[in-house]
Amino acid sequence: MTKLVETLAEIRKKTAQARGEGRSIGFVPTMGALHDGHTALLHQCRRESNLAVASIFVNPTQFGPGEDFNRYPRTLPEDLERCLQAGIDLVFAPSPAELYPNGLGSTYAEVPNLTTCLEGASRPGHFRGVATVVLKLFLAVTPDRAYFGRKDYQQLLVIRRLVEDLLLPVEVRDHPTVREPDGLAMSSRNRYLSPDQRQKAGVLHHALVQARNAVLGGIHDADRVRQILHQTLESSEGVVVDYAEVADAQTLEPLDRLSERQAIALVAARLGATRLIDNMQLTE
Description:
The protein is an alpha/beta fold. The protein is built from ten helices and nine strands.
């Protein structure tokens, strides 16, 4: 039976009790509007933990001015049912006042270097909000392991660095991106797309596959791979490219050639008012 917990006092009591009994704690932080990608994380958490915890919190500090905080889908009853079906023990769904007792402009966590490019450049302040809320949630839940999807690859790197730099006793586990049949990465924002936009959105995955095939075919010049990404994305009418980058998979530094370091392609594009992101490893 899944139990809904809404206060810091109760979640701390529940997890402290579990830890006192020698039980391992797994944790899946989410903003709700759960889909099959989240479900994969929930199942992984359930398999690997004695106490499986998920959070549902639409974090205001990671949204910039004019972004979709107010219209971000809030589907708590459906999310609780999905957690129940996945065998999650506790769902922590706090109010903003629980996590930001002194208001939204109080103390923040910053992760430098990894947060100034790509999503960080397009969404200033986004990763400060992400790092802050993840740190707060880790302190509230005290998990042994936490689970994140690779679709938000830059976020994954930021959280790993946060854990490493602040000596947090949490093992960060990742899960491969879960995709629709046409390759579109599952995202809570996909529900914003009109039928026509949804049909065109598969071009993000198609561009990444084209880039990977080019690399497998012997192209190691990163600018040529970037050109393939841009050309493929822009071939679909209505798709506006935000970025299409080829970078070092650990540092996110732009690459000149792909033969020396592990490389990843990362893309972001808009279809109407909806912004989507995706990525794909190019070299091992």
